[in-house]
């Protein structure tokens, strides 16, 4: 049997943690490589994480090489090959955006430093906790010895939501859809892009024109229905479920890490990665792009054409990311 991968999960006692840990232990994230799970919680969350650890034992997963619970970041990130940063401070009544960024800076700065000081040399980090892109930026800023491209933020859930909405609209299987992209921030300003997508090999643009009786109908569906539905799906889930998405978020985290380590097989996916200046996105912002994974790294897909509408929407989302960076700079968090 191969050497276990050490996976640290923060916020392990929460909702996403409960859905995520069993998927990882079952082999969904790293195939038949054994995993050692290191769960990090704040003291109030430790009991819940310990309960989950007991249930993980009771599941007798052949690939589970061990599970430990910590309330100390240095110990939890010790030797981590993978760090899933799920725990975050939720926005509560009366909190301004600056308060939320400040509260999360107090979490993601020290966790970035603990990753820098204690994780394995090959550590890969996925930030799920919101605001995910800027939390990833903060963590990366506190880990100067870790290459910036090892820090990512999750927009795979947005990507999967876009696939699902398109699949429903065209009555076509999700598995045959390729080259959908999410650009920008994991927020309502994101731009879900179908301009280059295909379904069963056919351009989606033409399929939508057939489905919605012409170019005007297709455009109306895109602008009035598809984009707002995907961009606001998180709020829709909270409204209907009474809690934020958990199982679908966990599933997206599995997809993101599996593709990062094993490579993408069928065209583009989407991930928040540290910008190298591609498409005019300021360097260093953690922005969602169409990406492919090979040789163990994410690569931004180059040369994607964007019409004026797409360029304006992406610019607006990137401007929001730049504002968030300015806000955390002003707070002294980076
Ligand atoms: P939850 O409240 O159920 O669980 C969060 C857990 O994090 C709690 O158990 C809490 O004790 C723990 N925690 C808080 N601060 C911590 C710290 N400093 N260190 C370790 N643990 C800490 O929330 P959830 O439903 O699991 O969601 C977690 C986060 O994921 C939220 O920020 C949510 O907004 C975000 N989210 C992101 C996406 C995405 O697509 N990127 C999707 C869904 C949810
Ligand atoms: C989601 O997209 O489901 C979440 O980011 C929503 C949230 O605010 O937790």
TrEMBL record:
Which parts of the sequence bind NAD(+)?
A: 11-17, 104, 111, 128-130
Stretches assigned to the Lactate/malate dehydrogenase N-terminal domain: 7-144
Q: Which reaction does it catalyse?
A: (S)-malate + NAD(+) = oxaloacetate + NADH + H(+)
Gene3D superfamilies per the record?
Answer: Lactate dehydrogenase/glycoside hydrolase, family 4, C-terminal, NAD(P)-binding Rossmann-like Domain
Q: Where are the transmembrane segments?
A: none
Q: What is its EC number?
A: 1.1.1.37
Q: Where is the Lactate/malate dehydrogenase C-terminal domain?
A: 155-328
Domain of life (superkingdom):
Bacteria
- The stretch of residues making up the signal peptide is none
| Protein name per the record | Malate dehydrogenase
């Amino acid at each position: 049997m191969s050497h276990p991968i050490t996976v640290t999960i923060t916020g392990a006692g929460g909702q996403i943690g409960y859905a995520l840990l069993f998927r990882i232990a079952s082999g969904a994230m790293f195939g038949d490589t054994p995993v050692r799970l290191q769960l990090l919680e704040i003291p109030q969350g430790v009991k819940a994480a310990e309960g989950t650890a007991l249930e993980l034992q009771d599941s007798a997963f052949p690939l589970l090489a061990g599970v430990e619970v910590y309330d100390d970041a240095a110990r939890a990130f010790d030797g981590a090959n993978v760090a899933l940063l799920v725990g975050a401070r939720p926005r509560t009544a009366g909190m301004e955006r600056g308060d939320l960024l400040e509260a999360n800076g107090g979490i993601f700065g020290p966790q970035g430093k603990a990753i820098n000081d204690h994780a394995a040399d090959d550590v890969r980090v996925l930030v799920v906790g919101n605001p995910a892109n800027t939390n990833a930026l903060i963590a990366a800023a506190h880990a100067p010895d870790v290459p910036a491209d090892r820090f990512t933020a999750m927009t795979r859930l947005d990507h999967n939501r876009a696939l699902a909405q398109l699949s429903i609209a065209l009555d076509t299987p999700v598995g045959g859809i390729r080259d959908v992209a999410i650009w920008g921030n994991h927020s309502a300003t994101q731009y879900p892009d179908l301009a280059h997508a295909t379904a069963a090999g056919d351009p989606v643009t033409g399929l939508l024109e057939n489905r919605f009786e012409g170019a005007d109908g297709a455009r109306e569906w895109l602008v009035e229905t598809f984009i707002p539905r995907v961009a606001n799906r998180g709020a829709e889930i909270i409204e209907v479920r009474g809690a934020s998405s958990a199982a679908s978020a966990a599933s997206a985290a599995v997809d993101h890490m599996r593709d990062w380590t094993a490579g993408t097989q069928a065209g583009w996916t989407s991930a928040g990665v540290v910008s190298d200046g591609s498409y005019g996105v300021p360097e260093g912002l953690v922005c969602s792009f169409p990406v492919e994974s090979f040789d163990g790294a994410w690569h931004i897909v180059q040369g994607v054409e964007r019409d004026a509408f797409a360029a304006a929407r992406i610019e607006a989302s990137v401007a929001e990311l730049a504002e968030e960076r300015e806000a955390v700079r002003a707070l002294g968090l980076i």
